[in-house]
Amino acid sequence: MSLKEKLMEDFKDSMRNRDVVRKNTITMIRAAVKQREVDERIQLKDEDIIDIISKQLKEKKEAIEEFQRGKRQDLVDLTEKEMNILLKYLPAQLTEEELEKVVKQTIDEVEAKSIKDIGKVMKSVMPKIKGKADGKEVNRICKKYLE
């Protein structure tokens, strides 16, 4: 079953179960997918949909920071629920140790010596971990090993 079909099935289930948060989150994903398909006149593959979901997850993380600054715990809780739903459609997320291992290996591959080489490392790491980790985490780990 493709990711698009899975989203449709889960959408129907959430409607039947009256799970509003899940329904709204899936609607948001499906709307973004449809928008891109219409704009570019293509049918998106699963990896393209994963990119869209990853981007939405990143936006949710940034929104949580804003809500915490505004002392809106109700919005923080809602956004965390949405993030958990989004994570179900992404590949299993890498642990800190797994991510460090990939970064170290890539640093050796591209023969990075200093912080100036972080661009080369990031360019090489990101396709390997597509959808499995956040770019900010990768950048932080790269800086840790290249300083």
Structural description of this entry:
Helix content is about 75%, strand content about 0%. The chain is mainly α and about 150 residues long. It folds into two domains: about 5-85, Uncharacterised protein YqeY/AIM41, N-terminal domain (Hypothetical Protein Yqey, Chain: A, domain1); about 95-145, Orthogonal Bundle (Arc Repressor Mutant, subunit A). α3 (about 45-70) runs antiparallel to α4.
What is this structure's SSE topology?
Blueprint: H1 3-16, H2 20-40, H3 46-69, H4 73-87, H5 96-109, H6 118-128, H7 135-146
Helix pairs in contact: 1-2, 2-4, 3-4, 5-6, 5-7, 6-7
Organism: Acidilutibacter cellobiosedens
Protein name: GatB/YqeY domain-containing protein
GO molecular function, one term: carbon-nitrogen ligase activity, with glutamine as amido-N-donor
Give structural attributes:
147 residues, mainly alpha, Arc Repressor Mutant, subunit A
Task: Average the pLDDT over all residues and give the rounded result.
Answer: 93
CATH class of the largest domain: Mainly Alpha
Tally of extended strands?
A: 0
Instruction: Specify the CATH homologous superfamily of the largest domain.
Output: Uncharacterised protein YqeY/AIM41, N-terminal domain
Give the number of helices.
7
CATH architecture identity of the largest domain: Orthogonal Bundle
Proportion in helices? over 70%
Q: Runs with pLDDT <50, length 5+?
A: none
Structural class comes to mainly alpha
Q: What is the assembly state of the chains in this entry?
A: single chain
The main sheet comes to:
none
Pfam family, one: YqeY
Protein name: GatB/YqeY domain-containing protein
GO molecular function: carbon-nitrogen ligase activity, with glutamine as amido-N-donor
Organism: Acidilutibacter cellobiosedens
